[in-house]
Amino acid sequence: MTIAATALIATQGLAKAEQLTVTSWGGSYESSQRNAYGLPFEAKTGVSIIWEEYAGGLAEIRDQVERGDVRWDVVDVFAHDARVGCEEGLFEKLPADFYTSNGIDQDLLVERPNDCVGPNILWSWLTAYDARKFSGSGPKGLADFFDLERFPGKRAISVFPQANMEMALVADGVPPERIYEELSTEAGIDRAFRKLSSLKGELVFWSAGEEPIEMLRSGEVAMATAYSGRSGSAALRGETFIKTIFDGQVLEEEWFVIVKGAPGIENAKRFLAHVSEPEQQAAQARWIPYGPMRRSALAIIEEGEPWFHTSENILPHLPSTTSRLNRSVIADADFWAQNGATLTERFAAWRRSLGY
């Protein structure tokens, strides 16, 4: 009986070691990760991936670590959480050779913030418009979003200060690389609100990612700020009247991390190494219009067009191509960590002052 029990425990331990829990955001985004990352990893390693969905933030991760009952191995996190979680010791630190052995550090389109993160995707806040409402070529740049005389119609923006503040300043003439320098001053904040106030009377607000696309689809608004993945997906579905403007977009990072004390830590490290390969980075763009973090992955997509799984060209819908980066604001997670609460309150007060 003792021998049998020992064998059973060993078998259970082996089974557990050959499983990996990856926590992400669900929906079509998670499906793209399953197709691009998960299935090839399972085929290559024999490790079975269990996918779980969460609503973001660090609360659940912090709770698991503090209780010593870690259930998640790998988690998909936003830029701010990638920084705070690493500082708090909630994530495993990756060895230096993780970044040097396959040239990650020299190949990233954005700078990695710490030693806890593995490459994932880039997405952006951008502007989109309904081409049915404009004759001729339509708006071309971010400044056109604020030009109600040449391009009349309602404008939809999010209820959050993030991206709205940055895009207002770009439209007002501030170079993308100087945005946070400007926003760090009271004069710069006032300047952003003045620019946003120039849309008074024509504003509609959204709080969920699909809302601006629905507003454009229904004709409720002529132009909207939107998430790049949503606008790109709409166009790839055949809604070609929804046009995207990348000028002045605010580019956001998304990383993979390993939870401190993860039960499947070795397989988690293998998974992060797998995901960071240029071929896998490029593969996700077959399923959803988000940009890879690695330049070499972009090269694979460019050489392999048409790339999307429906045999459509994906490059027109990716936010992180080299030419678009020249007119992009790289979101500063540290700035928003320090100033987010204050600017959120002020943004809400500004909305109320306009009668919204």
Question: How is this structure best described in words?
Answer:
There is one protein chain. The protein has 356 residues and is α/β, with parallel strands linked by helices. It is 46% helix and 18% strand. It is built from 17 helices and 10 strands. The protein has helices spanning 2-17, 27-45, 59-67, 79-87, 96-100, 104-107, 142-145, 164-171, 179-183, 186-197, 211-218, 228-236, 265-276, 278-284, 295-304, 322-325, 333-353; strands at 19-24, 48-53, 74-78, 118-130, 155-158, 203-206, 223-227, 242-258, 291-292, 329-330. Strands 1, 2, 3, 4, 5, 6, 7, 8, 9 and 10 form a 10-stranded mixed beta sheet that branches. Strand 1 (19-24), helix 2 (27-45) and strand 2 form a beta-alpha-beta unit. It is globular, with a radius of gyration of 22 Å. Mean pLDDT is 94; it is low at 1-17.
Q: What is the helix/strand order?
A: HEHEHEHHHEHEHHHEHEHEHHEHHEH
Distance between the amino and carboxyl termini: 72 Å
Question: Which bin fits the share of residues in helices?
Answer: 40-55%
Rg, alpha carbons: 22 Å
Average pLDDT number: 94
The count of DSSP E runs of length 2 or more, i.e. the number of strands, is: 10
Map the helices and strands.
Elements lengths: L1 H16 L1 E6 L2 H19 L2 E6 L5 H9 L6 E5 H9 L8 H5 L3 H4 L10 E13 L11 H4 L9 E4 L5 H8 L7 H5 L2 H12 L5 E4 L4 H8 L4 E5 H9 L5 E17 L6 H12 L1 H7 L6 E2 L2 H10 L17 H4 L3 E2 L2 H21 L3
Parallel strand pairs: 1-2, 1-3, 5-6, 5-7, 8-10
Antiparallel strand pairs: 3-8, 4-7, 4-8, 4-9
Helix pairs in contact: 2-14, 8-10, 14-15
